[in-house]
Amino acid sequence: MIFADKAYQGAGGSIRTPFKRRPPAPTVPPAEDRQPPPRQTRAAGERAVATFKGWKILTKPRCRLRRATALVQATSPYTTSRAAETHDENASLLALQQRSLWEAFAKRPGLFAGGLVTGGFPVNATQANAIAAGEVPVWISHGEHDHLLNVTGARNSSTLLRQAYQARGKSPEQAANLVRYTEYADSAFSLPDYHAAFGPTYEDSSILRWLLGQTKPAGAGG
């Protein structure tokens, strides 16, 4: 019997060699590092929605039942089971529902205290005039390099709405206060999904405080 080093493995016969160690198992990264990019992108918005759902103040209407009924009737044609998240009479819908958001604001402006539009479709002139007539404050946010909906639509929406307010006698400063606009550079996104403007929007507490601070004047209705 001959003892040899590992170089002679496989020689057979009476030659004996040491066993080779098994290769180390591949290192598995933590679960949070293996999340698919879409889940990471949606995380900020889902955290905000989860926070709103936990508020006890949302368990019952804070307005007259007549107005609550009108609110349901106004929004039911445009929403599915989880299409919209509401707080009091403020609304925020994600991109594919935002055509309906503009339409709801235009047809029933008295139901809404304010609106937040993130990475959404543009408003048209008829809707802008109706929204200005109802004086619904709106904050629009969009990614500078949105690959699904070009940022030009959001820029045009803010311009169109401000022009509609000025046509009704508002000063440029008043119009800018009623129609706010935030455009996010690529650096604002944690992942390169520049359509997901809701991420940096919901991470900005000043925008959420503005939205939740909007109230309808006493006596206003739908």
Sheet having the most strands: 5 strands, mixed
Order of the strands making up the biggest sheet: 3-4-5-6-7
SS field, number of helical segments: 8
Number of strands: 7
- What percentage of amino acids are in beta strands? 5-15%
- What is the succession of H and E elements? EEHHEEHEHEHHEHH
Mean pLDDT: 76
What's the gyration radius in Å? 28 Å
Terminal-residue CA separation: 98 Å
Shape: elongated
| Model regions low in confidence, pLDDT < 50 over at least 5 residues | 78-96
- Fraction in helix: 25-40%
Which structural class should the secondary elements be placed in?
A: alpha/beta
Describe this structure in a few short sentences.
The protein has 222 residues and is of the alpha/beta class.
Describe the 3D structure:
This protein is α/β, with parallel strands linked by helices. The chain is 39% helix and 13% strand. It contains 8 helices and 7 strands. It has helices spanning 37-53, 65-75, 98-107, 125-134, 151-167, 172-178, 198-203, 205-212, and strands at residues 2-3, 15-16, 84-87, 90-93, 114-118, 138-143, 179-184. It has a 5-stranded mixed sheet, with helices on both faces. Strands 1-2 form a two-stranded parallel ribbon. Strand 5, helix 4 and strand 6 form a beta-alpha-beta unit. Helix 3 (98-107) packs across helix 4, helix 4 crosses helix 5 (151-167) and helix 5 crosses helix 6. It is elongated and about 105 Å long. The termini are far apart. The model is unreliable at 78-96 (pLDDT under 50).
